[in-house]
């Protein structure tokens, strides 16, 4: 295996990982900022107020973006298996 092929596989893997995790991370960031803004406005510093809505939003986002995540990881797996079958690895 040439180093260029290994770097290409690593690059594709990192890209697929970032694309797969982007929706969940974006929702967690937005919900966290909204909760922090709400806490700053109302001066309510309750710890459960921080975690429960964020966890609920993350679960809903995972459920909704699961087909996208599955498709992205399936494309990566198909590319890697094609390289293995063709002798590129």
What general outline do the C-alpha atoms trace?
A: elongated
C-alpha end-to-end distance = 5 Å
**Strand percent estimate:** under 5%
Counted up, domains total 1
**Rg, Å, rounded:** 19 Å
**What are the low-pLDDT stretches, counting only 5+ consecutive residues below 50?**
none
Count of DSSP helices? 2
Summarize the amount of helix as a percent range. Answer: over 70%
Structural class: mainly alpha
Number of strands: 0
Please tell me the overall pLDDT.
90
Instruction: Report the sheet with the most strands, covering strand number, pairing sense and barrel closure.
Output: none
Sequence of secondary-structure elements: HH
What does this structure look like?
With about 90 residues, the chain is an all-alpha fold. The chain has one domain. The chain is about 90% helix and about 0% strand. It has helices spanning about 5-40, 45-85. The longest helix is centred in the first third of the chain and has 40 residues, at about 5-40. The chain is elongated and about 60 Å long. This is Flagellar biosynthetic protein FliQ. Belongs to the FliQ/MopD/SpaQ family. InterPro entries: Bac_export_3, FliQ. Keywords: Bacterial flagellum, Cell membrane, Cell projection, Cilium, Flagellum, Membrane, Transmembrane, Transmembrane helix.
